[in-house]
Design brief:
By secondary structure, the protein is an alpha/beta fold. Helices cover 41% and strands 19% of the residues. It is globular and about 55 Å long. The model has no long low-confidence stretch (mean pLDDT 96). Bound molecules: 5-hydroxymethyl-3,4-dihydroxypiperidine.
């Protein structure tokens, strides 16, 4: 393998999530929007980018950029809108789509839970109650039926720590709680639900590989010399990046966030319950101790002068390699990058972003990390949760009025690298370098 070559069999692909693209979904988030509880109360996802009706077209777009894998999610609220009543037509639709994906030579990467819930869930069986595990097991059983024989890469949970922080500690997303005790109960039940889902999937699916997608941040003390900033950085690394992965590896959930939430719980059956580690990497956070609650200030900074991305995040590809190597050394498991991407509203920074991140990923691979694939977030622009319709992460830009998908300059570059498996510089980077001379 040359220094610019990805390993043989390495898969490039793209990622999406149901609520952000499909449209026409009634779930806890749509209810939250109607209640005006979003950061901007005018935000509505509505028809999203109508992927539900444009699936085949979007699959073709994924193929056009050389994708060998396509990450989608199965919307629980579509499958089980009323507790205990399965919408068989929706199940059938999902099954047919994934079969077509597989027949087109694109490996399905399927998330069972990507932030959203049916509307009954938080009212009747919230995550901090043990009954949530029973409910999620039933959801997983239905998903396993959809996935039978497809050799899918299955992600039980997307970014459990984001769900926990936003939904159980900051109250910013459904269920809107800020309660450390409930948060820790919920986190334990998320881990148990992963185990339950794994059992259902293994029983029903035949071949499939099972893991989670963990949002991982590079962290840095805002004042490198300050002992409390440094202590916060260590805590963040351990709790945010590792606690959940560790629970599914050694069977014990250990969280220690002084003043916020702490727990130590055995998770029956969780030891070695992931076939791969899914990493979602976007940026670096600078942490500073402040002498009043919540005692932590979290900031993005443009330390290296590259310019923040349009959503305001630091562009920090160096952290990508560090995290991948950290996961490799800590767990020794195969790794999939299940998300990485940039909000680039002009579309001109994305090729350079890809080049920089791929270069660092290759560096980690050459140092021994067993990385099997890279999925770009996202195939096309979509509904970005609290930020609504502003951000544009798509390889294809979408006209939100007409729903037309148009290739951004990164499409051509993505296809070139995905098809050849060889990392070359994008033309825009050469321009960037010339301008710097
Ligand atoms: O859009 C989200 C996605 O749903 C989860 N990971 C981060 C993305 C960008 O914010």
């Amino acid at each position: 393998m040359g220094t610019h070559e990805f390993p043989r069999g390495f898969t490039f692909g793209v990622a999406t999530a149901a609520y952000q693209v499909e449209g026409h979904i009634e779930n806890d988030w749509s209810e939250w929007e109607r209640q005006g509880r979003c950061k901007d109360p005018s935000h509505r996802c509505g028809r999203a980018v109508d992927h539900w009706n444009l699936f085949d077209h979007d699959l073709q777009l994924a193929r056009d950029v050389g994708s060998g894998a396509f990450r989608v999610s199965l919307e629980w609220a579509r499958i089980e809108p009323v507790r205990g009543q399965v919408d068989e037509a929706a199940v059938d639709q999902y099954r047919q789509r994934l079969v077509r994906m597989k027949e087109a030579g694109v490996r399905p990467v399927v998330t069972l839970h990507h932030f959203t819930h049916p509307q009954w869930f938080h009212r009747e069986t919230p995550w901090h109650e043990p009954s949530s595990v029973v409910e999620f097991r039933r959801h997983a059983r239905i998903c396993a039926r959809i996935l039978r024989g497809l050799d899918a890469l299955v992600i039980t949970f997307n970014e459990p720590m984001v769900l926990l922080l936003g939904g159980y500690l900051q109250g910013m997303i459904p269920p809107g709680l800020a309660d450390g005790n409930k948060a820790m109960l919920a986190l334990g039940n998320l881990a148990r639900s992963h185990v339950a889902a794994r059992e259902e999937l293994l029983r029903e699916c035949g071949r499939c590989e099972i893991g989670i997608s963990q949002n991982m941040l590079a962290f840095r003390p805002d004042r490198w010399w300050h002992p409390l900033d440094r202590a916060l950085t260590r805590l963040a690394l351990d709790n945010y990046n590792h606690a959940f992965l560790r629970a599914l590896t050694d069977g014990e959930l250990r969280v220690q966030m002084p003043g916020l939430a702490s727990t130590r719980q055995r998770i029956e059956g969780a030891r070695d319950s992931m076939d791969f580690m899914g990493i979602n990497y976007y940026t670096r956070a600078h942490l500073r101790f402040i002498p009043k609650p919540p005692f932590l200030q979290f900031q993005y900074r443009d330390l290296l002068g590259r310019g923040l991305t349009d959503i305001g995040w630091e562009d920090y590809p160096e952290g990508f390699a560090q995290l991948v190597l950290d996961v490799h050394h800590t767990y020794g498991k195969p790794i999939w990058v299940t998300e990485n991407g940039i909000d680039d509203r002009q579309g001109d920074r994305r090729p350079g972003f890809l080049y920089d991140h791929w270069r660092h990923l290759l560096g980690a691979i050459h140092q021994g990390a067993d990385v099997r694939g890279y999925l770009y977030w996202s195939l096309m622009d979509n509904f970005e949760w609290l930020e609504g319709w502003g951000p544009r992460f798509g390889l294809y830009s979408v006209d939100f009025e007409t729903l037309e998908r148009r290739p951004t300059p990164a499409c051509h570059y993505f296809r070139q690298v995905a098809r050849s498996g060889v990392l070359v510089e994008p033309p825009s980077l050469r321009v960037r370098e010339d301008a710097g001379r």
